[in-house]
Fold:
Amino acid sequence: MAPHRPGAGIRALHWLALLLLCAAYLQGGLNKLLDFGSAVGEMQHFGLQPAAPLAVLVITGELGAAAMILSGRLRWLGAAWLALFTVAASFIANRFWEMAGMERFMAANSFYEHLGLAGGFLLVAWHDLTREGGRWHAQRP
Structure:
């Protein structure tokens, strides 16, 4: 029996799921690109220096990794990068352990939501690396 090949509808749904997963990074990267001064201000707000080069790195990383994921070209690398970036940014921006009250509650929710998002990116990377014909295809038992 021939292996099942997904139809165009399934491929479109897969690409839409990847687009939705990348949406925040596309929006964030484009906003930072179009308002670079605010991007630099964001780096300064979080105490990151040198702010301008780091803003360039964030913009390039967000847009570049999202493009890799959506194009399928080195998808695993783009997904791994966004997983790492998401966890690092969450530790910088959502330090709920330093907060109290409603601020702590909201930051903790955001922190753990971002961990879930990073997990989604790791699943994309794993799927890309282990798919049939993939470079590092895992052996089935």
User: Anything to note?
Assistant: The chain has one domain: 22-130. The longest helix spans residues 101-130. Residues 137-141 have pLDDT under 50 and may be disordered.
